[in-house]
Specification:
Blueprint lengths: L1 H15 L8 E3 L4 E3 L1 H5 L9 E13 H4 L5 H5 L6 E13 L3 E5 L17 H6 L6 E2 L3 H6 L6 E5 L20 E3 L11 H11 L6 E3 L7 E3 L6 E5 L8 E7 L2 E5 L7 H6 L10 H18 L6 E4 L6
Parallel strand pairs: 1-9, 5-7, 7-8, 8-9, 13-14
Antiparallel strand pairs: 2-10, 3-4, 3-6, 4-5, 10-11, 11-12, 12-13
Length: 308
């Protein structure tokens, strides 16, 4: 056995050190560090951003990936694994001065009605890509902007279902994501990195948020949009709080995937890289919502794949 460990040790190191993507990263040119109190200071006041939530696709995946079924709340509810209907969302933010940004990458027209060659056969099988049905592609979103360009994409994280729309966006569109997201090492990336690289082939560089010791950034410097680092599901998971003409919108990505997960404080399951940290981040973000919106009528929360 000792000899076998020595023999396979280099392979184990290789598997564990596989990053999410080969796309180069650099420090973001947007955002300044602020306190959490500053994020929520004017939360009850409407802001300048026009907000639209788009259902880009519908899908069905195992609930055990979306929800930690070992959590006491899930155990008490008697929840068992099953195929769960979900949606893939992208959010269109129109700022009067800074232009149009997407939160998460949407879905491209190439995923409609045919196998997508960007996704490997293994990833397609494991992720049940046959069940994905495009509802509104990025091409259709762009058509509804009357010629207005997309200024950038703000990713909650880099998982497959959050980066499927770049084929429909202009080459070199600015893309922002959390620190360490692209470089995070995992054995799973050996199977997924090729697909991730192909889905990001239109992206020349990933711009990482520089939190500089803070947990939050004022993205535009005007108090209208904030990025908050909430790692666990992935190393760089970032949630976004927008002050919009329709009130405060909190886009939490896969901090928790489901409506039930948010309402009952249950973090994602097997899809998370660090389950204990994922649970801590969810508890923290929920505590902020409870603190700054005690009555529950100010902040609209958007879980990753189901609406409240």
């Amino acid at each position: 056995m000792t000899n076998l460990r020595v023999l396979f040790a280099p392979l184990a190191v290789l598997l564990a050190s596989c990053s999410a993507t080969d796309v180069p990263t650099d420090t973001a040119d947007l955002g300044r560090s602020v306190s959490i109190d500053a994020v929520f200071e004017d939360i009850a006041t409407t802001g300048p951003i026009e907000f639209e939530k788009v259902t880009a696709a519908t899908w069905s995946v195992p609930l055990s990936g979306l929800l930690n079924l070992e959590h006491p709340n899930a155990q008490a509810a008697g929840i068992e694994d099953r195929d769960e209907a979900i949606s893939v969302y992208t959010y269109v933010l129109k700022h009067p001065e800074h232009g149009v940004y997407l939160v998460d990458g949407g879905v491209s027209e190439s995923f409609r009605g045919a196998d997508n060659s960007d996704v490997s056969w293994l990833v397609a099988k494991v992720m049940n890509m046959a069940a994905l049905t495009v509802q509104r592609s990025n091409r259709e979103i762009l058509a509804g902007l009357d010629g207005e360009a997309i200024s950038g994409v703000l990713l909650t994280h880099i998982h497959l279902d959050h980066i499927m729309g770049f084929d429909d966006l202009p080459l070199g569109t600015d893309v922002y994501l959390g620190p360490g997201e692209a470089e995070a090492s995992s054995a799973n990336h050996l199977a997924t990195r090729g697909t991730t690289n192909r889905l990001l082939s239109q992206v020349s560089q990933l711009r990482e948020w520089a939190f500089d010791g803070s947990k939050a950034l004022d993205v535009f410097g005007d108090g209208s949009l904030f990025a908050i680092h909430a790692p666990g599901h992935t190393a760089g998971l970032t949630v976004y709080l927008a002050r919009t003409t329709a009130g405060a919108q909190l886009m939490i990505g896969d901090l928790t995937h489901t409506r039930w997960g948010w309402e009952n404080g249950v973090e994602p399951g097997t899809y998370s890289a660090d389950l204990p940290q994922s649970a801590k981040s969810l508890t923290w973000i929920k505590s902020l919502v409870d603190k700054y919106d005690a009555a529950g009528n100010i902040i609209t929360v958007h879980p990753g794949h189901q609406s409240l």
